Amino acid sequence: MKLYFSPLACSFATRVALYEAGAAATFVEVDPLTKQTEEGTDYLTVHPLGLVPALLIDDRRLLTENAAILQFVAEEFPRAELAPSDPWGKSLMLQWLLFIATELHKTVFVPLLEKIAGPEVKSYALAKAPLRLGCVERRLADREFLLDQFTVADAYLCAVLNWSAVTPIHLERWPSVHRYHTSLLRRPTFARAFGEERALYFRELERDAPGHP
Amino acid sequence: MKLYFSPLACSFATRVALYEAGAAATFVEVDPLTKQTEEGTDYLTVHPLGLVPALLIDDRRLLTENAAILQFVAEEFPRAELAPSDPWGKSLMLQWLLFIATELHKTVFVPLLEKIAGPEVKSYALAKAPLRLGCVERRLADREFLLDQFTVADAYLCAVLNWSAVTPIHLERWPSVHRYHTSLLRRPTFARAFGEERALYFRELERDAPGHP
Q1: Cα B89–B91–B95 angle (5° rounding)?
Q2: Closest Cα in chain A, distance from residue B34 (Å)
């Protein structure tokens, strides 16, 4: 398997899931600015929107969309127990994956992170944050994970919460979310993935800086 | 089962899926402006963001997030064959459900439909439409449905494409998408659901018009 990723993008969650599963995978970096892969190929031929992650499973199978990939990894490596085993638990995990993807990732964070988004767009997105993070706060008030066990939904939520550091969203305002995020980043697979991708992220910033050859 | 819906919202897709499955369900209308249900209750006690659909399955189980509900319905009524039966087909269906939810529904259409979104926000969202609808166009160029059979992903995509009528997105620009949408609306379950919800939609507009008691 080959995972196309960009440092600290939502593909961080898939890297964590693969580490949790002990899965053999190669990781191919995609420059989010130029859309070139570290293999020297044009990533737009893999994903027409240039979005990471994409998981190349074998010669025939390419999967895109972070939440779909996360569920695939959980199902492919059942011994890692990265998803509930009962049908209702699976439905609830999918509900949370969708909530993170639609309400947090796309509604709140993408406009806050994108350079092409002007101040009115950023205000519109930021105004939507408190209600949505409030939902997560109430969910996490008395639990360690989103569901009754660690799942790939926690990996996705952590990836999204990581972005608050470069936005006006201060997680301290939601104490249970803040505690949860801090605690997840101490988990060995998360700490390893975060350390590796943070180093690559700073290299990416340097490479894409104006004036750099 | 009880489906909380608003006329022609994305909950339209779940209504279609329930009709396709021949499932017994009651439909409870939620006014998107006041968040009151037709039962006279406050919908914010069901869903803190006030978003439809929500599916009350029994006394213990409430599911939110359209794509999670659609997958639940497909699994609950396997004889209706609303999803592929093989694991890889299921992964691809989830990929498309996610693409529709994140790239079309939340990224493009919500800002175009919301009154609180100003002109800069609407321009930002509209600029994202061609690349995304182009992906769907290429996918549908030589096929009747998103996957090798009709699935709940088609119901979701149809619900989203319905909204183009009240936005500056002209589906004629993407001929395969336009043909697909027109063809789906002729399917009996879609035609029935669309007729019913259109009538309710006009009643809703009248009810919520300024000056109406």
Answers
A1: 115
A2: 17
Nearest to B9, CA basis, from B44, B52, B39, B55: B52
Chain B residues in contact with A121 by the CB 8 A cut-off are 120-121, 124
Residue B165: what residue type? A
Q: Which residues pair with B37 in a beta bridge?
A: B30
pTM of the model: 0.97
User: Are the CB atoms for B77 and B22 separated by under 8 Å?
Assistant: yes
Q: Is the peptide bond before A87 cis (omega within 30 degrees of 0)?
A: no
- B7 CB contacts (<8 Å, ≥6 apart)? B29, B197, B198, B200, B201, B203, B204
Q: Which residues of B touch A49 (CB under 8 A)?
A: 103, 131-132, 135
Q: What is the pLDDT of residue B211?
A: 74
Residue with tokens 């449905």: B145
CB contact (8 A) between residue A65 and residue B99: yes
Dihedral of the alpha carbons of B133, B177, B166, B32, in degrees to the nearest 10: -80
Shortest alpha-carbon distance between residue B97 and chain A (Å): 9
Chain B residues in contact with A120 by the CB 8 A cut-off are 118, 120-121
Strand partners, B63: B55
**Is residue A69 classed as helix, strand or coil in its secondary structure?**
helix
Q: Do A107 and B110 touch (CB under 8 A)?
A: yes
pLDDT at residue B213, rounded to an integer: 60
In DSSP notation, B103-165 reads: IIIIIIIHHHH-TT--HHHHHHHHTTHHHHHHHHHHHHTT-SSSSSS--HHHHHHHHHHHGGG
ipTM attached to this prediction: 0.97
- List, in order, residues 6 or more apart from A83 with CB less than 8 Å away: A71, A74, A75, A89, A90, A93, A151, A152
- Nearest by CB to A87, from B68, B75, B107: name it: B75
Question: pLDDT tens across B115-135, in order?
Answer: 999 999 999 999 999 999 999
C-alpha B63/C-alpha B3 separation (Å) is 10
Contact A134 B48 (CB under 8 A): yes
Residue B194: pLDDT band with limits 50, 70, 90: very high
CB-CB neighbors (< 8 A) of B146 in chain A = none
